Amino acid sequence: MNALDSHLLKTIADLHSIPQGAYNIRKNGTGISRNSTANIEIRPKEDKPGIDIIVKPGTRGESVHIPVIITNEGLEDVVYNTFDIGEGADVVVVAGCGIHNPGESKAEHNGIHDFIIRKGARMRYIEKHYGEGEGKGEKILNPVTIIEIEEGGYAELELVQIRGVDSTRRETKARLHKDAHLLVTERMLTHGQQLAESNILVELIGQDASTQVISRSVAQDNSRQIFYPRVVGFNRCRAHVQCDSIIMHQAHVRSVPEIAANHPDAQLVHEAAIGKIAGEQLIKLMSLGLTEAEAEETILQGFLK
Amino acid sequence: MNALDSHLLKTIADLHSIPQGAYNIRKNGTGISRNSTANIEIRPKEDKPGIDIIVKPGTRGESVHIPVIITNEGLEDVVYNTFDIGEGADVVVVAGCGIHNPGESKAEHNGIHDFIIRKGARMRYIEKHYGEGEGKGEKILNPVTIIEIEEGGYAELELVQIRGVDSTRRETKARLHKDAHLLVTERMLTHGQQLAESNILVELIGQDASTQVISRSVAQDNSRQIFYPRVVGFNRCRAHVQCDSIIMHQAHVRSVPEIAANHPDAQLVHEAAIGKIAGEQLIKLMSLGLTEAEAEETILQGFLK
Fold first, then answer.
1. Residue B87 CB coordination number (10 Å)
2. Which residues numbered 263-282 in B keep a CB inside 8 Å of some CB on A?
3. pLDDT in tens, B248-265
4. Distance (Å) from the C-alpha of residue A253 to the closest C-alpha of chain B?
């Protein structure tokens, strides 16, 4: 791994060296380093690109890192990863993709992630997306996340687009069974001419399934964002969806949430807001000695934290 | 007018007798009584069914009643009404449609209403829908409301579906210019096998245009409701959209609001909630001596007020 690889891995997965525990590092469409542990097995798929990650029942306090980096232009990388989180396990999965596109033709990574969180298991999943590069070649990321949570299971999806991604179309679909809970936090920054679309569908199937979806975004320059978060309740269940966007410059933001109740004991709530940075916040920080640009940056960082 | 006519007019327009001021009463597809005043002219359209309502600039404190009643089955009534509210006027328009369908074939009324609220004018518009009848003939109401509000104008749309409407598809479109304000309050009760769909689109075009959309609904039995409130901001503007639904029995409710900002100074907020009647409220009223059914009815009436 060279300095550029390390820089990308640090940005998307907070990795300063080869991680502890199970990991799979993919670079320019190929696995370059892999490690399984006694409790977490990673094995390449035989029928298509990608890996199976199998976490033994009862595994606790372990992590899996599966970052992807791309440093070539003209690459269209599609990968299928399947996660089986065994009963009663409690693990952290760190994914993410960093693209450094040096040229004029596009670099694209589409990660299709399929999760099953088995009975009573817990998973925290962190996925960060980042793009950079000297040329005008587009950096494109179209992640698909499909998650099924069995009885009493819990999952947290932390989905972050740091910056530099020219085009993204995010698909997230979840099915929750009895007493399952899903927390989705999405944070996204777009700038330049970037385009971002996020579709989230959470189906609350089992009794007392519940979900919280929190989406925060900042749209700068001429960028465009569209959000379609949807929650459908089929049973006694609860959901809270919250979308907040800061709009700047000539950006456009559309938020089209849906809540649908197909059961009299479904309790679904949605809130959305689009607006600019609050003037009072700017003035307060500037009165403490920050320039307007510094104050703006501080507020945006806080909002996307 | 017979007793049935009076009953329908009282239900939809609070009319106990022929109203004061300007009015047009339509029954079973024909105007049966009309009155213009010095300031408000009502004249039948020449090219299609319907009337033009012209309110002179500066007219204040006057009202127009244009109720529609249907007491025959097998009628499909379409009417085009055009409202011109002159500069600086301040008037109340009471519309609404009541259907008593005595038979087995459907009775349908589609009122297409087109408003221009001129510079600085104010209008309060009240439209109530109601259906009843001995037979199984459907009562169908598909209103279309198109409203343009000029600089500094103000309009309030109070759109109420009382009960008994088997199928409704509501279309409401508004364009707001500089400093214009629109308040929409929609209240809807569905029961039985009824179906209700409401599409609202408010475009905030002029600087400092603002809107508030409040939708409240109760879905009972096997009824289905779908709401698509949309607000699009093209300028410095403000919007607040609030949809609350009470779901009961085997009903289904979908709420799909959209806020879209195409300007950095657009401030748009949306809130939606679907849930059942709060248990504490029921218990409190029952502890005061009401039966459960009475307590439920009291809460629903309050919610839809």
1. 18
2. 263-276
3. 999 999 999 999 999 999
4. 5
ipTM of the complex: 0.90
> Quick check: helix, strand or coil at residue B161?
strand
Task: Name every residue whose Cβ is closer than 8 Å to that of residue B24 and which is 6 or more positions away in sequence.
Answer: B31, B33, B34, B35, B42, B51, B53, B65, B66
Q: Which domain holds residue A169?
A: 3-278
- Provide the token pair at B26: 């339509």
pLDDT digits (tens, 9 = 90+) for A76-105: 999 999 999 999 999 999 999 999 999 999
Q: Which one-letter amino acid corresponds to residue B170?
A: R
Task: Find the length of chain B.
Answer: 305
Q: Do A270 and B265 touch (CB under 8 A)?
A: no
**In whole angstroms, what is the distance from residue A201 CA to residue B77 CA?**
41
Q: Does A231 touch chain B (CB under 8 A)?
A: no
Per residue in B169-180, pLDDT tens? 999 999 999 999
Average pLDDT estimate for A44-72: 96
- What's the structural domain count of chain A? 1
> Regarding beta strands A122-132 and A97-100, do their DSSP bridges make them parallel or antiparallel, or are they unpaired?
parallel
Cβ of A266 within 8 Å of Cβ of B247? The answer is: yes
For residues B157 and A261, give the distance between their C-alpha atoms in angstroms, rounded to a whole number: 27
Nearest to B113 by CA among B84, B140, B151: B84
The answer to whether residue B296 sits within a structural domain is no
Question: How far is B108 from A100, CA to CA, in rounded Å?
Answer: 62
CB A261 within 8 A of CB B244: no
Residue B253 lies in a domain: yes
Query: Distance between CA A156 and CA A159 in Å, rounded?
Result: 10
A301 in a domain, yes or no?
no
A231 assigned to some structural domain: yes
